[in-house]
Amino acid sequence: MSDTVTVHDTAIPGLLVVDLPVHGDERGWFKESYQRAKLDAAGFPPLEVVQNNVAFSREVGVTRGIHAEPWDKYISVAHGRVFSAILDLREGPTYGRVVTLELHPGNAILVPRGCGNSYQTLTPDVVYTYLVNEHWSPEVRYTCVQAYDPALGIAWPIPEAETIRSDKDRAHPPLADLAR
Known about the structure:
This protein has one domain (6-169): Jelly Rolls. Strands 1-2-10-7-12-5 form a 6-stranded antiparallel β-sheet, with no helix packed on it. Strands 9-8-11-6-13 form a 5-stranded antiparallel β-sheet, with no helix packed on it. The chain has helices spanning 36-41, 167-170; strands at 6-9, 16-19, 22-25, 28-31, 51-57, 63-68, 73-79, 82-88, 98-103, 107-111, 115-121, 126-132, 143-144. The chain is mainly beta and 180 residues long. Helix content is 6%, strand content 39%. It is built from 2 helices and 13 strands.
């Protein structure tokens, strides 16, 4: 397999999809989920990483978000598959635009600050990792939107009634209720 990392633009400016080589054999697999020199060569923008976070979801149907934090996030899946939905909440012509894709060990995404991030687990035992360029703190406020807002048109693979969600995520407002 090639060691080439490729970076692709999406319909949301700054939201990038990264194809990552995964090398496997009878022992399992290995990938470089974040390799600065290879990302630079592929045209990836500079990202000064200050924190690495890992979220584990045991069940299929765990749905998190939509959360727009005030930092960039480089997201990769170490185990399993997720359906990812990104919502542009920045002022401008792409406000309200949604991009969806499946994340697995062979790809990653860069979600720019101001875009809402959400995902739904498609397999059990998902390990979801993300690097950020600002530290989390309890004082930080982010914009949150209801993941199942019909106005967003997100075709979630698992219906809302069959998901596992936090009460906090269920209480997020629809996009129309946000003050712009």
